[in-house]
């Protein structure tokens, strides 16, 4: 039993890390704006809150869907995670040049919503697989907040060298976890 709990926690931590890579890569680019530390703290907090709320909504919607489609939920959930991973990799390879949002006011809320859409979809998948919602969303929020802060601070120094690679890593992790879910 303890081994199962540790395994589930580790899987959720890896998913939280992978989903947080999107926020990290966006934050690396935003870090080039030379934001003040107070603004960095606010941005990380807002993105973290969205990474708690969005997957929570996804998990509950996933539970509703899983009660409707029954035994196919694990396959559907794995396919959703793989699709999100592939989308992250494709976005990293072919970025949209109009992605730049201002991290203030409505721009910050839109930015937080945008980078947390992946966590909503992953939450939907996790809801179908009956995971512990509170553990998942707290890990998502904590990881994305810390990764956003790290990205903003590193971006101030590095000036964009890691952005594409971090999003590709996150996408690769999600694809690997989705494939592992299909195999098991």
TrEMBL record:
GO terms for cellular component: plasma membrane. Coiled coil: none annotated. It is found in: Cell membrane. Keywords: Cell membrane, Ion transport, Manganese, Membrane, Transmembrane, Transmembrane helix, Transport. The chain crosses the membrane at residues 12-33, 40-60, 72-94, 106-127, 133-154, 161-183. It holds the Pfam family Mntp. It is a multi-pass membrane protein. It comes from the Bacteria. InterPro entries: Mntp/YtaF, Put_MntP. One of its GO terms (molecular function) is manganese ion transmembrane transporter activity. Belongs to the MntP (TC 9.B.29) family. Probably functions as a manganese efflux pump. HAMAP family: MntP_pump (MF_01521). PANTHER family: MANGANESE EFFLUX PUMP MNTP-RELATED. This is Putative manganese efflux pump MntP. The gene is mntP.
């Amino acid at each position: 039993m303890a081994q199962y709990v540790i395994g589930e926690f580790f899987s959720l931590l890896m998913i939280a890390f992978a989903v947080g890579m999107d926020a990290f890569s966006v934050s690396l680019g935003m870090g080039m704006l030379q934001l003040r530390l107070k603004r960095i703290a606010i941005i990380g907090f807002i993105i973290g809150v969205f990474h708690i709320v969005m997957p929570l909504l996804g998990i509950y919607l996933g539970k509703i869907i899983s009660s409707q489609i029954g035994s196919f939920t694990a396959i559907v959930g794995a396919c959703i995670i793989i699709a999100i991973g592939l989308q992250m990799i494709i976005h990293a390879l072919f970025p949209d040049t109009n992605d730049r949002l201002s991290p203030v006011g409505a721009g910050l809320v839109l930015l937080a919503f945008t980078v947390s859409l992946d966590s909503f979809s992953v939450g939907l998948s996790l809801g179908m697989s009956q995971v512990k919602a509170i553990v998942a969303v707290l890990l998502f929020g904590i990881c994305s907040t810390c990764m956003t802060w790290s990205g903003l601070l590193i971006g101030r120094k590095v000036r964009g060298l890691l952005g594409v690679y971090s999003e590709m890593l996150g996408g690769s992790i999600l694809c690997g976890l989705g494939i592992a879910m299909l195999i098991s």
